[in-house]
Design a protein that fits this description.
Elements: E1 8-10, E2 12-14, E3 17-19, E4 26-30, E5 37-42, H1 46-61, H2 70-86, H3 88-99, H4 103-125, E6 132-135, E7 139-147, E8 150-154, H5 160-173, E9 177-181, H6 188-199, E10 207-209, H7 214-223, E11 229-233, H8 236-246, E12 252-256, E13 262-265, H9 271-283, E14 295-299, H10 300-315, H11 335-350, E15 354-357, E16 374-377, H12 384-387, E17 394-400, H13 403-411, E18 415-416, E19 418-422, H14 426-435, E20 440-443, E21 458-459, E22 462-463, H15 468-475, E23 476-484
Parallel strand pairs: 1-5, 8-9, 8-11, 9-10, 11-12, 13-14, 13-19, 14-17, 16-17, 19-20
Antiparallel strand pairs: 2-3, 4-5, 6-7, 7-23, 12-22, 15-16, 18-21
Helix pairs in contact: 1-7, 2-4, 2-6, 3-4, 4-5
Bound molecules: nicotinamide-adenine-dinucleotide (NAD).
Nicotinamide-adenine-dinucleotide binds at residues 154-158, 163, 181, 183-184, 213-215, 218-219, 222, 233-235, 238, 241-242, 256-259, 290, 389, 391, 417, 457, 461-462.
Length: 509
């Protein structure tokens, strides 16, 4: 494993070069395990964003990238994936130090998945289905897919490297050029991605990174008139703000927003597996996971036994330094986020719920953003801890009486990202899955994803889907090309010839 310099310098990446910000301002990125600075980062401004967008625009309008064959672009993306594989230990270490997510989860899960994102979308680029419509032997219409333009990619701090590649890979595979604005609390791995893309020899300007804060670097990217589309992952309120700010320049949006996903456990389920999955789904990635099953809905008849076993296991989760392979929960990303989660722990108690385990700073870890994983019981669905996204290692438990009741509770929330359900009854599995208001439902399964399937949420969890060909639907425009195969009749207006009865049939707008 490589050792890192004490404090890194992180710069923007514009037109194939690492550059300082025009204003020369910087900010610090903290190690969540110690809250000491690990990087000094260029703080992007509207001028930096403009520089990056202008270069991405030039690369799109006049450069080779959008004009290359998908197979040639795919080869370049495969080189990026190879680079990730070669530097996997280093990327995992940097990501671990920057986010506090346990190293094992990053090394085994997130970084290999980032390489997989590039490989998958590289291959997908050469296989996107193209449609043609023969029209009564007289015409043929076919659909050309063309890259949609310059994309602004705005990402959050949870699993930053994986989520950045989740956007960058399809965006580039589709032939777009990009400006990435990573989250200010986790800027480091985006700089590594820029290095990897430079090493993979992509034309300059195709991929750019502007570091900085949402209001001063994200907002100018959204408002920039030369940016055509915005793919955003983050909080719902930020998504709303972005849509307002992009309205004047008519952006196309993909919005992957917040969640408060239920896991429903019926008494006929394999309860051991349901228990394992509930804990895994809520407490991996420090609970800072958009698809976390943060609301446990459990049949009242098995409530006490199931919750008893759950609480025992959660109390034994190993909170510790993220580099320790035995650690199951690391420190939360930032002291401000720790405060926010801690406020929800206090709020839950004020609302009358019972905090049955965790919720405090572990005594043996006085420094860093550590929090014991928490479980609330006696929760009613109307409480704020049941309705609002906490985005930390906190699970709320709500009993239900009947299947209808369970569906009602599951859907009675403004979010609709993911849902999980456990039952031994196949018919019930389908019935409930179909009744749930969620973009993705897992039955008797933890969150296992196939990259071909659409990812995204309903309601306040998002707009649009990415993944598989759905990503290409976003990053490409459809152009319909109509070809006449013969000499169909065209009415001769103004010639004095009398119109035929059928001349104006099908006259369209
Ligand atoms: P956030 O909304 O605070 O920030 C996300 C990004 O938006 C950051 O890069 C930030 O700098 C930028 N930003 C903030 N204000 C902006 C503005 N006005 N204009 C442009 N950009 C702006 O989110 P976060 O706290 O970084 O991430 C946690 C959130 O992300 C949670 O709500 C979580 O559910 C969500 N999330 C969703 C998914 C999904 O796929 N649905 C995946 C991961 C995380």
């Amino acid at each position: 494993m490589k050792t890192l310099p004490e404090v890194r310098t992180v710069r923007h990446f514009i037109n194939g070069e690492f550059v300082d910000g025009t204003a020369g301002r910087t900010f610090e990125s903290l190690n969540p395990a110690t809250n000491s600075p690990i990087a000094v980062v260029a703080e992007g401004t509207a001028e930096d964003v403009d520089r990056a967008v202008q270069t991405a625009r030039k690369a799109f309008d006049a450069g080779p990238w959008p004009r290359m064959s998908p197979a040639d672009r795919a080869r370049a993306l495969q080189r990026i994936a190879d680079g990730i594989d070669r530097r996997v230990e280093e990327i995992a270490l940097v990501e671990c130090l920057d986010t506090g997510i346990p190293y094992t989860q990053i090394r085994q899960g997130q970084i290999p998945r980032a390489a997989e994102n590039f490989r998958f979308f590289a291959e997908m680029a050469t296989r996107v289905p193209h449609e043609a419509f023969p029209v009564e032997g007289a015409f043929v219409n076919y659909i050309q897919r063309v890259p949609a333009g310059v994309a602004g990619l705005i990402t959050p701090w949870n699993t930053p490297f994986m989520l950045e590649t989740w956007k960058v890979a399809p965006c580039l595979a589709a032939g777009c050029t990009a400006v990435l604005k990573p989250a200010e609390w986790s800027p480091l791995s985006a700089a590594l991605l820029a290095e990897l893309i430079r090493e993979a020899d992509l034309p300059p300007g195709v991929f750019n990174v502007v570091q900085g804060f949402g209001e001063t670097a994200g907002a100018p990217l959204v408002a920039h008139p030369l940016v055509n589309l915005i793919s955003f992952t983050g909080e719902t309120v930020t998504g709303q703000e972005i849509m307002r700010n992009g309205a004047a320049t008519l952006k196309r949006y993909s919005m992957e927003l917040g969640g408060k996903s239920p896991v429903i456990v019926f008494p006929d389920a394999d309860l051991d597996r349901a228990l394992d999955a509930t804990i895994f789904g809520q407490y991996t990635l420090n609970g800072e996971r958009c698809t976390a099953n943060s609301r446990l809905l459990v049949d009242r008849r098995i409530h006490d036994e199931f919750v008893g076993r759950l609480v025992e296991r959660v109390a034994r989760l190993r909170v510790g330094v993220p580099l320790d392979p035995a650690t199951e929960i690391g420190p939360l990303i930032h002291p401000e986020h720790w405060e926010r989660v801690a406020r929800y722990i206090a709020l839950g108690q004020e609302e009358g719920a019972r905090l049955v385990t965790g919720g405090r700073r572990p005594a043996q870890l006085p420094v860093g953003n550590y929090l014991e994983p928490a479980v609330f019981t006696g929760v009613s669905n109307a409480m704020r801890i049941a309705q609002e996204e906490i985005f930390g290692p906190v699970l709320v438990v709500i009993p239900f009486e009947t299947e209808e009741d369970a569906v009602c509770l599951a859907n009675d929330v403004r979010y609709g990202l993911a849902a999980y359900l456990w039952t031994g009854d196949v018919a019930r599995g389908h019935r409930v899955a179909q009744a749930l208001e969620a973009g993705m439902v897992w039955v008797n399964s933890q969150n296992v994803r196939d990259l071909r399937t659409p990812f995204g949420g309903m309601k306040h969890s998002g707009i649009g889907r990415e993944g598989g060909r759905y990503s290409f639907d976003f990053y490409q425009e459809y152009k319909t090309i109509h070809i006449a195969l013969g000499t169909h009749r065209i009415p001769k207006l103004g010639s004095g010839e009398k119109a035929r009865e059928t001349d104006f049939q099908g006259l369209d707008g």
